[in-house]
Design goal:
CATH superfamily of the largest domain: P-loop containing nucleotide triphosphate hydrolases
Strand order of the largest sheet: 3-4-2-5-6-1-7
Number of helices: 35
Radius of gyration: 31 Å
Largest sheet: 7 strands, parallel
Number of domains: 5
Bound molecules: adenosine-5'-diphosphate, zinc ion
Distance between the termini: 84 Å
Number of strands: 17
């Protein structure tokens, strides 16, 4: 089609109100107008919709826009209808939500040529009557939005998308434009193949979002950490993603209890509540929305200042899409993810019910997320690399790993070993397989290939497989290694890798970070601690903390009590975060009951007060993590029953609890400062000598109140039940 530049710009102005195109928009539109298939990869917020809306308005005929979301369609149709008054026919949508009369109206408008854009859900496209209708229409082109839905390797696979190509053939071929905001090289190739547009012109914008700060935090007390973060960023809008509805409700509730206006959003809520909650977030009536992944598609709130992943996402693509909702206005925004390997194991377990092939894909995508989370490399570099893009610098300056860089080492020997092994095997294998062989660990797969017999088996056994995985990952980023796209993940050595192997040069590598609860890798424990302390926002005031510890040491000498009996480490940690300067505030620190606060707290409060004044510290005044009241009726019942000297068996029976659960509950009650007198029961159940031994142990020997430690030190003559009972007695009589 002949394209007049003037016409294009005047339409851009009259319809959309813009004076200039953004990024590649013009080139993309011209390519389509020339009748060519066009593939658009652009990050969220890049301006994809205009790429098909504008040509649809200037070309003769109707453009068919295939989009997976009804809400999104309706929204776009409303926008376009707003362009020309009294011309509601200019855009329509066709999906399962329409009634008979509405469908008739769409038919009339489409057939009479009034309609320039027709939005269709993929499942509606496959209906016979719609296919028949569209056969009679003059189609300008097909736009396939969210095209990654076509691939099983994308984060939102929709089988109906696979049928689009057939439908297009039945209705009649016209140029195709595919658009997506996330696609790895594998997904990109799937899209082109499946749509039969191998020759399409590909327009790929950079996926870099320079204003987003990325951080992965150890998932230790995440609720508390989140509340602290939000309190430190008052008035800012944010989204918190959780994987389960239950968690969404819990967190939203907890935030509200702590004075943060938050609302839940998940598929279990009815449509009206969901819409209301979304609106209230958009209107800034609430600051935080706590959501399952269902939230955020197609909403365009420009000033979302933080996106928190309470749970690790199932794929990097999902992660990137969700974090992409932050900072659309270009101002800095934070993307914080809580990571624990336990969550990964949970996700793997959920997958077990699915078909094997799906499980395999799911596991691979999940492992990419693990690699990302545990890496010590620049997050931006890792993310962009995942989407097939090189980030030119080594340090981006705004991600956790760049702000706290880890020691690097010259990895030429290690990388050479990896390359040597890959080259020595006649077939290609995945990353984990190679890492296992080098570290000398044979799983079933390694054995089945007899790879525990190859000369390089265990050649790197001075390191574990996690170390070798990290080396291989960095080899990929340096393009010394590549993964095959089709077979997804089988490693081969690139030309650059061969060159390196012939003439190795210095490459700086880093080991992965170690997270608490991470499986394996015990030798790096010290690192884990220093890493955590170095992390932005983690932990409290280190200077104050060491002063508090000194004071505790002092007092322990004076009072002839072990330090932990005065205040435990968690209590001191909290003090260094909360700066309590009254007894009430002190009482809010972990394990500090009222009695203990009064008994030992005065000097701590004095010290903190002085410290706060001298250093001009703004205290997070209302920062007290209040927990949602749970089972409080049990608590009251238990306290009353102990007062009445009922046996613990009877109390447990009455509440339908196991004895262990009751002991848990008693410990919670005691650690929050309530004293219980269990002597009537202990005298009856435990031998006096044994009581005395355990009591003495806690008083003189123990370095903490840990039951495990007591069990070890005391030996097999004392059982857990006895230890726990006497420990409760001790905590009530001495330590509180
Ligand atoms: P995507 O679908 O890629 O996420 P959108 O189509 O929603 O992006 O566009 C993102 C934002 O960019 C919108 O606010 C849109 O109005 C704006 N935009 C699109 N094209 C232009 C342009 N040529 N000039 C200025 N703003 C634009
Ligand atoms: Zn970085």
């Amino acid at each position: 089609m002949e394209i007049d530049s003037e016409l294009l710009y005047s339409k851009l102005k009259t319809f959309f109100g813009y004076d200039a195109f953004k990024g590649d928009q013009e080139a993309i539109i011209r390519n389509l107008l020339e009748g060519k298939d066009t593939f658009v990869l652009m990050p969220t917020g890049g301006g994809k919709s205009l790429c098909f809306q504008l040509p649809a308005l200037v070309m003769p005929g109707t453009a068919i826009v295939i989009s997976p979301l009804i809400a999104l369609m309706k929204n776009q149709v409303d926008v376009i209808r707003g362009f020309e008054e009294k011309q509601t026919g200019i855009a329509h949508f066709l999906n399962s939500s329409l009634g008979k009369a509405q469908i008739q109206e769409v038919r009339n408008d489409v057939l009479s040529g009034v309609t320039k854009l027709l939005y269709v859900a993929p499942e509606s496209l496959t209906k016979d009557e719609n296919v028949e209708l569209l056969k009679d229409v003059n189609i300008s082109f097909y736009a396939i939005d969210e095209a990654h839905c076509i691939s099983e390797w994308g984060h939102d696979f929709r089988p109906e998308y696979r049928r689009i190509r057939n439908m297009v053939q039945m209705i009649g071929r016209a140029p195709i434009m595919a658009l997506t905001a996330t696609a790895t090289p594998k997904v990109q190739s799937d899209i082109q193949k499946n749509l039969g547009i191998m020759d399409a012109t590909v327009f790929k914008s950079s996926f870099n979002r320079p204003n987003l700060y990325y951080e992965v935090r150890d998932k230790v007390e995440p609720e508390k950490d989140i509340i602290r973060y939000i309190k430190q960023n008052p008035g800012k809008s944010g989204i918190i993603y959780c994987l389960s509805r239950k968690k969404v409700e819990e967190i939203a509730n907890l935030l509200n209890i702590n004075g943060i206006r938050a609302l839940p959003y998940h598929a279990g809520l009815d449509a009206k509540t969901r819409a209301d909650n979304q609106d209230r977030f958009l209107m800034e009536d609430v600051e935080v929305i706590v959501a399952t992944i269902a939230f955020g598609m197609g909403i365009d709130k420009p000033d979302v200042r933080f996106v928190i992943h309470y749970d690790i996402p199932k794929s990097i693509e999902g992660y990137y899409q969700e974090t992409g909702r932050a900072g659309r206005d270009g101002e800095q925004a934070d993307c914080i993810t809580y990571y624990s390997y336990k969550d990964i194991q949970k996700l793997e377990k959920f997958m077990l019910g699915k078909p094997i092939s799906e499980q395999e894909i799911g596991r691979q995508l999940l492992m990419e997320t693990v690699a990302y989370a545990e890496s010590s490399q620049c997050r931006r570099k890792l993310l962009l690399n995942y989407f097939g893009e090189d980030y030119p610098r080594d340090n981006c300056g705004i991600c956790d790993n760049c702000l706290n860089p880890k020691q690097t080492f010259d990895g030429r020997k290690e990388m050479s070993l990896v390359i040597k092994l890959i080259k020595s095997l006649p077939e290609h294998f995945k990353l984990e397989h190679i890492a296992l062989i080098l570290s000398g660990k044979a799983n079933a797969m390694v054995k089945s290939y007899n790879h525990d017999k190859v000369p390089l088996y265990g050649a790197g056994s001075d390191h574990n497989e996690k170390f070798w995985s990290a080396v291989i990952h960095q080899g990929l980023i340096l393009h010394l290694l590549e993964k095959e796209i089709e077979s997804y993940g089988l490693l081969y050595v690139t030309e650059k890798g061969e060159e390196f192997f012939r003439n190795p040069y210095e490459i700086r590598l880093v080991e992965d970070r170690v997270f608490k609860g991470t499986a394996g890798g015990g030798e790096d424990d010290d690192d884990a601690i220093s890493d955590k302390a170095a992390m932005k926002g983690g932990g409290g005031d280190p200077v104050l903390l060491s002063m508090l510890k000194n004071l505790r040491k002092d007092m322990s000498k004076r009072l002839h009590l072990q330090p932990w009996i005065i205040f435990g480490d968690p209590a001191l940690d909290d003090m260094s975060i909360l700066y309590p300067i009254t007894f009430d505030e002190l009482h809010n620190c972990q394990g500090v009951g009222e009695g203990k606060a009064r008994k030992y707290g005065a000097e701590f409060i004095e010290l903190i007060k002085r410290y706060v004044e001298e250093n001009d510290i703004t205290r997070p005044e209302d920062f007290v993590v209040k927990s949602a009241p749970t089972r409080s009726s049990n608590k009251i019942y238990i306290i009353q029953s102990v007062d009445r000297k009922l046996s613990l068996e009877d109390i447990a029976d009455a509440k339908g609890m196991e004895m262990d659960e009751l002991l848990d509950e008693l410990e919670v009650i005691v650690s929050s400062g309530t004293k219980l007198d269990l002597n009537y029961y202990i005298r009856q159940m435990v031998d006096d000598d044994i009581v005395e031994d355990i009591f003495e142990y806690f008083k003189e020997e123990a370095t903490s109140d840990s039951v495990e430690e007591a069990r070890e030190k005391l030996g097999p003559d004392y059982d857990d039940f006895e230890i726990r009972l006497v420990r409760i007695k001790f905590l009530c009589e001495v330590a509180s």
